Amino acid sequence: MQTRSFTETLPRRVVVREVGLRDGLQSVATLVPTAAKLEWIRAAYEAGQREIEVGSFVPARLLPQLADTAEVLAFAQTLPGLRASVLVPNLKGAERALEAKAEMMLLPLSASHAHSLANLRKAPDDVVAEIGRIRAERDARGARTQIEVGISTAFGCTLQGRVEPEEVVRLVQAVLDTGVDAVSLADTVGYADPAMVSRLFERVLRVAGDKLVCGHFHDTRGLGLANVFAALQLGIARFDACTAGIGGCPHAPGASGNVATEDLTYMLHSMGIATGLDFEKLLALRARVAQWLAGEPTHGTIWKTGLPKTFAKEAAHA
């Protein structure tokens, strides 16, 4: 019997969406100046990144780190071919995103009832209803803005504990029924392991098919890249990451940020998977971000260890 190498089933190209400017910065105390954020976006763009989550339309009093999202988004929209997305928590935020002609809105929906109440002050089904109103508003305006719903705490919750896979699948089906364009699964608090990722992504793929477009993994317990690999094996070809692994979750004490952009890129390139990213430029950007966030915790490994001598040859095949 002829067998296939596991690498033959992996995507040949993966999109790394940078989310440090939103998911990363919202969890740190330091206020990064707008000018530095624009430098960050330009440097990431020059490194080859073509999907960046640039901020969130939330009240400035709640997240002063993201108060300049409209200005940051406007700059990002001047860069050819850059897909700039924004997170919006409710209809009011969505209206601001639509007025700004955002190409994509990311809407969070927690699979944990307790986390949903803590984060959005609404039960999950009430959030689904709000998502339906946002989709209707988008369509009424004739806007082309795409709507992606991120199912947060899909693998567990520090407030609630276990999150049943059946609830995740139910909520995915509910938001698809509202007419959204895409869904993603997020390990918001770093509870997942590769087996959990495989099982849940398999179940959601049966419901969502090609509308399941992204994995969002935090590296709190050191399994972020392993979880990415588990999703890769199922054909997922888009992942969120934060430069320097910054961020966390306000409802998950001790949680670290997303998988580090530079570590994820190294793993993919070393495996022969193309990303279109320039690794040296990503490392240079990481150093600048670490300066802007002096005193804040950063994460990641490859910036400390350096590249192996075989890396350039392996990356050339990506």
TrEMBL record:
InterPro entries: Aldolase_TIM (IPR013785), HMGL (IPR043594), PYR_CT (IPR000891). Residues 14-283 form the Pyruvate carboxyltransferase domain. Belongs to the HMG-CoA lyase family. One of its GO terms (molecular function) is lyase activity. NCBIfam families: PRK05692.1. It comes from the Bacteria. The keyword Lyase applies. This is Hydroxymethylglutaryl-CoA lyase. Keywords: Lyase, Metal-binding.
